[in-house]
Automatic annotation (TrEMBL):
Domain Gfo/Idh/MocA-like oxidoreductase N-terminal per the UniProt entry, residue ranges: 38-164
InterPro entries membership: Gfo/Idh/MocA-like_OxRdtase_N, Gfo/Idh/MocA_oxidrdct_glycsds, GFO_IDH_MocA-like_dom, NAD(P)-bd_dom_sf, TAT_signal
Residues in GFO/IDH/MocA-like oxidoreductase domain copies: 180-296
Name of this protein: Gfo/Idh/MocA family oxidoreductase
Pfam families tied to this protein: GFO_IDH_MocA, GFO_IDH_MocA_C3
Amino acid sequence: MQHFKRRDFIKAGSALSGAAVLSSMPVSDVFAAGSDVIKIALIGCGGRGTGATFDAFASGQNIKLVAMADAFQDNLEKTYQTIKEKFGDKVDVPDSRKYVGFDGYKAAIKDADVVLLTTPPGFRPIHFEEAVKAGKHVFMEKPVAVDIPGIRKVLAAAEEAKRKKLNVVVGLQRRYQTNYREAIKRIQDGAIGDVVSGQVYWNSGGVWVRPRKPEQTEMEYQMRNWFYFNWLCGDHIVEQHVHNIDIANWVKGRYPVSIQGTGSRAHRTGKDYGEIYDNFAIELTYDDGSVVYSQCRHFEGVSNRVDETFQATNGRAYLSAGNQAVLWDAKGNEIYRHDPKGNPNAYRQEHKELFAAIAKNEYAFDDTQHGAYSTLTGIIGRIACYTGKVIKWDEAMTSTVDLSPNVYAWDALPKIVPNEDGEYPYAIPGKNTELYI
């Protein structure tokens, strides 16, 4: 990875995300037969897919949902009914455009102008690749991959998306949240000097567990419980904590050169929790010698924390998704406090800006680089903790460890399967590291 100087990084990446038109030249023809209707396809019909569709409709543009795809029939039908009841004739998805199964995304993508990619993230690289190949604009949820081969696939597709002038927005919605935009602009303009350290957190009680049913194959069980298997979610340092890691990279204007840390299964240790850890603590070391400490955990019954703090040569900063942002100078005097009054919902704002650009036939969004590299930061952090090694960025980029199954089929086996007691193998630093790097 080439490490940009701060001003170059801002110019090449973060300032363009949700802000500036990349090219005044028209994008590829989006609307069929001169229609002003923007046709969307939803790929992945869970809670996030439902929310993303609601947010798309809230963008204020003339949007119609015309296709849906999911691996599971029940997921698709439940989401369809929810969206149909809310939006009525804005939903035109007959049974012939409801695609069920592992390959359904291919047909759904062909039916639309814009695709919403909201499946478990393990599928993101192949879905994004297909959408770009078909010439579609994309909203894709974070993270954008779960392993390094997946990152390389996403970056390759991103180059094709640029060539085709396809807008791509990644669901790191803090990039579209007013308090982050205003505060980080001030930080990058030098309001508190050079950032020399920071701390970013996602500490919570964890997420749902879906009990195994006797009739389920191993593939179905893992997909129903996708959060607990790395080929589907990447562990929570990647799936959730990527938000906070992305803020560290955004504030620093660069990506780390090496990562080291520790983690374990300390609290959520039973077979219901698959192979993932429940806590990580890593250090992100950047090429200027600065270090950002990153912590995430899933412990029930203890204090929670989801926010970011930074220390600089002339002051410090506090940021949070709760529309908070405060900057202090070196003497502790408050020099900026964000006013959250009237701030738009960040989830909706990212769709509002994306669909406004598409409606104007503008090429304005290329979120793929920061989405991919912040995802990669989380992946390297996971590898560092699983192996107990210091992982250098450039060396990690050569990894060939592909977590995805050899075959996508209900009777096929994922690469990680339980033993006779139903327990899944998990990483033990210093013992089975060859499985993870």
